């Protein structure tokens, strides 16, 4: 009947229904809006604070790198067999033992090596050697002549304005030598992080003299284009057949006139051939890959192999994308706040305990494994904890202030 009293004392409406329900719904909406506003503000503050902390606190960066390297070493692509398009010719002390000096590498020797590779039918010959000063004039000219006359595509490594240690005279000679060959050049700057590990490829310098990287130039010889010149390295693990990732041969074997040398040179036909040093005291770089052959720690390689990995990823179209930290931390912090404020203590340990860690690790690994996305795991974790704890505290404060959020919102 109209006007009938209900059990709690509220007056019913014309249809006899209690009049209190709309009020409760309105309170829930107000509390939800308050949670959204507070969560959004917390997420923005957390994102900017953590972004600043990530730049200024080496510990955060170091932990982030360690986790990313573990992910890279575990989930990088593992080909079935050795790369069939790239070969590496290594010059070491054994290669040069009949010569009076090893540094700089004898350019007469390099001239002969280029001719042998060209005769073997190499598709491209790329010299991962920076020519920054003159040596013996006749040998310098012999190398320039061999490079000019080669039928193969030639790519010469250069250091650009960011290369440490090059003075103006060396920069000028490098430019003049490359110009005397009439061949393509590419900068070889390696973007090592503070801990000395190479994780990225250094992008082009907008105001630099050399707009294209060494790896991109070599890949162009095989018709490939570099779509992410400043991105992360997309590493290759040792193939499933347990061969080396790239076919490698000592320069001394290339120069060998016997049957073994001939057979090895035949394997270079049609390939992109990189020439680089393999000296025990220089041009060594740490990678995120696990060490091979049972050795502990990281795999350490010579610079020519870094370029081989970079060329391979361009040829294959494999790229690792990094997600910006601000949007990720914003999203995760907001989600943590909403869940923390919704549970109000029930399940709080579940939200801040081991399960959320497992979930975030699983999401991180899945994104890298399936999409090759790298997310800022440490920043996201800190944002999640900040969001959950802040949401929990905010919800308890609402209850203390008399807003019945605890009774109505036991779940998010």
Could you characterize what this model shows?
- This protein starts with 20 loop residues before the first helix and ends with a helix.
- The strands form 4 sheets. A 6-stranded parallel sheet has the order 4-3-2-8-1-7, with helices on both faces. Strands 5-6 form a two-stranded antiparallel ribbon. Strands 9-10 form a two-stranded antiparallel sheet.
- It has 412 residues and is of the alpha/beta class.
- The chain has 14 helices and 12 strands.
- Mean pLDDT is 84; it is low at 1-14, 17-23 and 404-412.
- The chain has helices at 21-56, 58-75, 107-119, 137-149, 168-181, 214-220, 251-254, 259-266, 303-316, 325-343, 348-352, 354-371, 377-400, 405-408, and strands at 83-91, 124-127, 153-158, 184-187, 190-192, 198-201, 246-250, 272-277, 284-290, 298-302, 321-322, 373-374.
- It is elongated.
The amount of beta strand, in percent, is 5-15%
Please report the number of helical segments: 14
What is the overall pLDDT average?
84
* pLDDT < 50 runs, ≥5 residues: 1-14, 17-23, 404-412
Rounded to an integer, what's the Rg over CA atoms? 31 Å
Largest sheet: 6 strands, parallel
Strand order of the largest sheet: 4-3-2-8-1-7
Give the end-to-end Cα distance, rounded to a whole number of Å: 37 Å
Find the count of extended strands (DSSP E, 2+ residues).
12
- Looking at the structure, what is the overall shape? elongated
Order of helices and strands: HHEHEHEHEEEHEHHEEEHEHHHEHH
């Amino acid at each position: 009947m109209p006007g009938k009293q209900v059990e709690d004392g509220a007056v019913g409406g014309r249809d006899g229904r209690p009049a209190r329900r709309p009020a409760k719904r309105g309170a829930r909406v107000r509390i939800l809006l308050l949670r959204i506003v507070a969560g959004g503000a917390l997420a923005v503050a957390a994102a900017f604070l953590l972004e600043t902390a990530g730049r200024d606190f080496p510990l955060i960066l170091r932990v982030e790198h360690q986790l990313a390297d573990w992910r890279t070493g575990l989930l990088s692509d593992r080909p079935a067999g050795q790369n069939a398009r790239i070969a590496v010719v290594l010059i070491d002390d054994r290669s040069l033992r009949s010569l009076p000096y090893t540094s700089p590498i004898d350019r007469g020797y390099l001239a002969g090596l280029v001719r042998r590779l060209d005769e073997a039918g190499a598709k491209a010959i790329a010299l991962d050697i920076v020519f920054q000063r003159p040596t013996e004039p006749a040998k310098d000219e012999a190398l320039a002549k061999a490079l000019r006359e080669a039928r193969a595509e030639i790519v010469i490594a250069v250091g650009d304005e960011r290369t440490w240690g090059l003075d103006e005279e060396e920069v000028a000679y490098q430019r003049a030598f490359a110009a005397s060959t009439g061949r393509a050049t590419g900068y070889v700057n390696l973007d090592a992080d503070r801990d000395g590990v190479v994780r990225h490829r250094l992008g082009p310098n907008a105001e630099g003299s050399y707009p294209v990287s060494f790896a991109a130039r070599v890949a162009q010889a095989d018709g490939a284009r570099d779509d992410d010149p400043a991105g992360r390295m997309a590493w290759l693990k040792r193939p499933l057949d347990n061969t080396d990732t790239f076919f490698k041969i000592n320069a001394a074997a290339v120069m060998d006139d016997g049957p073994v040398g001939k057979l090895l040179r035949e394997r270079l036909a049609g390939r992109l051939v990189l020439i680089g040093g393999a000296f025990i005291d220089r041009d060594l770089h740490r990678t995120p890959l696990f060490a091979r052959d049972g050795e502990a720690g990281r795999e350490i390689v010579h610079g020519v192999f870094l370029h081989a990995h970079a060329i391979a990823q361009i040829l294959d179209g494999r790229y690792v994308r990094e997600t910006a930290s601000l949007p990720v931390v914003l999203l995760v912090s907001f989600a943590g706040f909403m869940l923390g404020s919704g549970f109000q203590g029930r399940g709080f340990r579940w939200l801040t305990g081991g399960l959320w860690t497992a979930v975030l690790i699983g999401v991180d690994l899945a994104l890298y494994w399936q999409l090759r996305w790298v997310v800022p795991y440490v920043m996201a974790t800190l944002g999640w904890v900040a969001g959950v704890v802040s949401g929990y505290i905010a919800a308890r404060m609402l209850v203390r202030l008399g807003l019945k959020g605890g009774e109505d919102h036991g779940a998010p």
